[in-house]
Amino acid sequence: MERYEAYGFSGAMSGAFLLSCLLFAAVSRRQRGPYMDEVFHVPQAQAYCHGRFLQWDPMITTLPGLYLLSVGVVKPAAWLLGWTGSVVCSVGMLRFINLLFSAGNFYLLYLLLFKIHQKNKAVSGFQRILSALTLAAFPTLYFFTFLYYTDPGSVFFTLFSYLMCLYGNHKTSALLGFCGFMFRQTNIVWTVFCAGNVVAEKLNEAWKIELQKKKDEKISSRKGSFSDLTRILQFLVKYLLSPKNLVTLTALTWPYIILVCLFFVFVFINGGIVVGDRSSHEACLHFPQLFYFLSFTVFFSFPHLLTPTKIRKFLLSLKKHPVQYSLVTLISLFLIWKFTYVHKYLLADNRHYTFYVWRKVFQRHELVKYLLVPFYLFAGWSFADTLKSKSIFWILMYFVCLLAVTVPQKLLEFRYFILPFLIYRLNIPFLPLYRQLLELAFYILVNAVTFYLFLNRTFQWENSDEVQRFMW
Asked: If residue 312 lies in a helix (H) or strand (E), which one and from where to where?
């Protein structure tokens, strides 16, 4: 990191943290008590604070990583600073843990952008800082910085694990992956993703050697025609059926394999992935979740995905491959018809934005969900097109992880899209500076509206005196 870039990053991070502290104070003044899922998380953390480690709320679905870390931070701080009484493990103190995670995420995002795009000398330090700031302000994640939720910590350990993987520190990466798993069980998918990065790199090296042997310059490790894809899949099967190659890959990825095995042991002993409230968190094949994720990504990455050039290229692709697109359209229609699920929480809880998205869009007419298929096709094509700088093996691995983390979820919940979005966004090329600034301005605007609604547009339910607030 050059001196001026270091100064610029320090200034951006300090300014963002100061602004977050001011916003944290405003949120804490307006909402002093636990809100939404905090009514489960805060008492559980406070029970751990008082040494009651065997006490457990059966409504909590995740493992106790957040509570254990909170106690590990707050208790020593209280001892050093002489804090006593109710301030220790208070709601505000516990929420402040996520403010620290938010700062850590900013730093990790910057380091990841630096590592992933280090070969691109055209990217300036200012662009890296701006991109890291933009992702740190990603509205769905940034909002939960100010509440005691698992998301900031889950993202922190997953990004840290990914960073260590890219630097080849796989044992450290797996250990951090375990910490991420303790925050949210589905983060095991991103442990598989880290192992997949290693495998994809070896596959890409072997594929290039294969091309040299055949002296076929027309086929590359990037996306190509259908026949190219067929040859790549044949190569993939052949490579993975070789005992020598499997031994090599196992030697490289054994820390991740151990962690995945531990995950399966946990699932067997626990009788499922979620810890509590299982009736409301049942896994299913909810394939339209992929379409929702693509729509979510287009919305938050429109400077990357929704441009006149992209639209023209998509229409040309559509004209060039009508049969393939017709087949994908039919499959999409079938998946929507047979595999659309509507969770009871989605219909009942009017505090979440998803409630209004579903009511205002999908419930307008039975045919709406089918009429959106052309948009899904464009979103999927544009999404894949921005990843064309990655190897085909990396893309296949990412899409497998994307399916694994989204499709089994019955509930449409934007928080479930945070990590796959960030991983995607980190790996696509940098935009021109003016479009980066547009993206940051858009995130700031969305955050401003979100916090205005949360703080000022409160309401009450007929059967409750509690103040209700709008949120992600």
From this structure: helix 308-320
Q: In terms of C-beta density within 10 A (0-12 exposed, 13-18 middle, 19 or more buried), how is residue 341 classed? A: middle
* Interhelix angle 65-81/91-116, nearest 10 degrees: 110
Strand partners, 459: 468
Q: Is 431 helix (H, G, I), strand (E, B) or coil?
A: coil
Cα(144)–Cα(99) distance, integer angstroms = 9
Q: What is the pLDDT of residues 132-147, one digit of tens each?
A: 999 999 999 999 999 9
In this prediction, residue 103 carries a pLDDT of 96
| Assigned token pair, 468 | 């209700």
| Burial tier of 159 (Cβ tally within 10 Å: 0-12, 13-18, 19+) | buried
Contacts of 164 (CB under 8 A, 6+ apart): 170, 172, 173, 176
Burial class of residue 32 in the structure, from the number of CB atoms within 10 Å of its CB (0-12 exposed, 13-18 middle, 19+ buried): exposed
Angle, helices 418-427 vs 392-406, to 10°: value is 170
d(CA 447, CA 335): 33
In eight-state DSSP terms, residue 430 is P
Q: Look-up: residue for tokens 């919940």?
A: 413
Which residues have a Cβ under 8 Å from the Cβ of 385 and sit 6 or more positions away?
310, 313
Percent of the chain with pLDDT over 70: 97
3-class SS of residue 298: helix
Distances (CA, A) of 324 to 313, 327, 375, 377, 431: 16, 5, 16, 11, 30
CA distance 180 to 152: 10
pLDDT digits (tens, 9 = 90+) for 141-171: 999 999 999 999 999 999 999 999 999 999 9
Residue 471 structure tokens: 């949120």
Nearest Cα residue to 397 out of 364, 420, 373:
420
d(CA 266, CA 460): 41
Cα angle 282, 284, 285; round to 5: 165
CA distance linking residue 57 with residue 277, whole number of Å: 10
Q: Is the pTM of this model over 0.85?
A: yes
Q: Which residues of 238-277 are buried (b: 16+ CB within 10 A; e: fewer)?
A: ebeeeeebeeebeebbebbbebbeebeebeeeeeebbbee
> CA 412, CA 344: separation in Å to the nearest integer?
10
How many Cα atoms occupy the beta-carbon half-sphere of 417 within 13 Å? 23
Q: Report pLDDT digits (tens) over 30-46.
A: 999 999 999 999 999 99
Question: What token pair was written down for 201?
Answer: 């790199």
CA angle 462/467/96 to nearest 5° reads 155
d(CA 363, CA 16): 39
Q: Which residue has the tokens 């023209």?
A: 312
